[in-house]
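Q: Hi! First time doing this. I have a protein sequence and I read that you can turn it into a structure. Is that right? Here it is:
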Amino acid sequence: MEELSKNNQKKEEKKSIIDIFNLFYVRVYLVILFVLNLLSWLFVYFFFTKVSQSLIILHYNVDFGVDLIGDVKNIFIIPALGLFIIIFNLIISSLFLENKHFKFVTHLLLASATLVNLFLLLALGPIYLINFR
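A: Yes, that's right. Below is the predicted 3D structure, encoded as structure tokens:
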């Protein structure tokens, strides 16, 4: 009996995640989010193939100069973090599906994920300029 209730609960969770994708504004957000994240992945791949050394400057501070040097593979953390935030916010919004404030919470979570992914994409620009200009 307990196993049957667990199966029903899993089906309901899957249904709630699928129901989110049926909403038009969620699909618009997801297209924007995945375009931003795809651009981040492409930029990082371009950067990774162009680097000839194993260490790169990952952060530059105006006051102190270079304050983070690391392996070139560490640059893949930036788009991976953006993808994690997209998935995490979608999971959180699926928990609010039955709430009366679902639309507001979903807009808030997906707009914040869009803003974070935009800033992560913009953060790749100075890394490129510091290492290649």
